Amino acid sequence: MKPRIDPHPAAPKASAPTDEPAARPGAGSWSIITVLLLLLVATDFVAYLGWTLEDGIKVSTAGYVAMAAGVLFSLVVGCGLMALIFYSSRRGYDEPPVLITPENRSERPGQYGRATKGLK
User: Fold this and answer.
1) Among 3, 56, 61, 107, whose CB has the most other CB atoms within 10 angstroms?
2) Could you tell me the pTM of the whole model?
């Protein structure tokens, strides 16, 4: 395994936790939270109207099966994507890019890339 190279050697290191209280959210944060909560309430209201607007409509067995399949498929895709995120993070695929310079500067630039392979 290759040794890890710090890409930002001048970056300050994280300090030990202190007993200072965290900064309070400002007006911008509160306005964003308020807008998001209003959107949540509006979405819930529209969902309630859609659910109760037409009484007496029966959902067939095929409808319930399709709904269950959609929920299951969404959960599988979400869990799969989360697994890929953890896998790529643990395997080092999320590391920042590192410039690899050729040892011989007289070589033609771009000869190591796949896009120029076969072009002369």
Assistant:
1) 107
2) 0.42
